[in-house]
Amino acid sequence: MNSLKLSKRLQAVVDYVETGSRLADIGSDHAYLPCHLAETNRISFAVAGEVVRGPYENAQKEVRQRGLEDKVIVRLGDGLAVVTSEDNIDTITIAGMGGALIRSILEDGLENGQINGSETLILQPNVYEVTVRDYLMTHHYRVTDETMIKENGKLYEIIKAVPSKEAMNYSNQELLFGPKLLSEKSAVFKEKWTSVLNNTQRIINQMEKAQSTDKEKLTELREYSDYIKEVLS
Ligand code: SAM
């Protein structure tokens, strides 16, 4: 992979970025995503933020090699601390991290005034997507697009959200499965949840066989499994 030929996962994130955006890509690693968007003239400006020196230096190298220093600025720092008000960022991408980390980066950014909640968010959590959607609902964000892709045997969810004037009220089902993904129920969606269901069922069977005394956990798992069965039926 390089900034010219992106992975399917990063391409799916790129596809959601609007032309002319001023982007902050947090956890940018090699800065492939902002470099690709700058090279294809899709963005007018980007900050590539990285907290770890090695990936930060990789990002700097990529930007230099592509001759994109005037459009993509690489900064070393934690989360949204790399963004200043003069950057006029209108779109934030955070990809390839857990849902809890994505949520805490956004919460810290708001708390510290590094963002103001008006930005378009394009997020690709590796796990705990529900945590990300809960953040979006709590902060009056509407999910406008969602997709699930499969690459190298792994399934990834990509979520685009914009601020909403009204409070958003997603059901628990929509938070867990994704409001758009749930309405589409694509083949990869069914594949993911069938696999989660099988794993959950296996754990339930093992606990029942072992006559587990953790009744609370067992009830929770049974409810979870019924929930998935309902969605898949
Ligand atoms: N975004 C790229 C992608 O999706 O391919 C890189 C994903 S990589 C798995 C996660 C990157 O996020 C790492 O380079 C890591 O150093 C960086 N990272 C983790 N926590 C961070 C934080 N709080 N602020 C900025 N970068 C962070």
Keywords:
single chain; 233 residues; alpha/beta; Rossmann fold; 9 helices; binds S-adenosylmethionine
Model description:
- The protein has 233 residues and is α/β, with parallel strands linked by helices.
- It folds into 2 domains: 8-168, 3-Layer(aba) Sandwich (Rossmann fold); 189-232.
- It contains 9 helices and 7 strands, in the order αβαβαββαβαββαααα.
- Strands 3-2-1-4-5-7-6 form a 7-stranded mixed sheet, with helices on both faces.
- Helix 4 (99-111) runs parallel beside helix 5 and helix 8 packs antiparallel against helix 9.
- It is elongated, with a radius of gyration of 19 Å.
- The model has no long low-confidence stretch (mean pLDDT 96).
In short:
The chain is an alpha/beta fold and 233 residues long.
Question: How many distinct folded domains?
Answer: 2
| Order of the strands making up the biggest sheet | 3-2-1-4-5-7-6
Poorly predicted runs: none
Structural class call reads: alpha/beta
- In CATH, the homologous superfamily of the largest domain goes by the name Vaccinia Virus protein VP39
Order of helices and strands: HEHEHEEHEHEEHHHH
What's the alpha carbon Rg, rounded to whole Å? 19 Å
Known CATH architecture of the largest domain? 3-Layer(aba) Sandwich
Q: What small molecules does the structure contain?
A: S-adenosylmethionine
Per DSSP, the total helix count is 9
The whole-number mean of residue pLDDT values reads 96
Share of β-strand residues:
15-25%
Report how far apart the termini are: 38 Å
* Quantity of strands, as a count: 7
Largest sheet, strands/sense/barrel: 7 strands, mixed
CA-based shape: elongated
CATH level-3 fold name of the largest domain: Rossmann fold
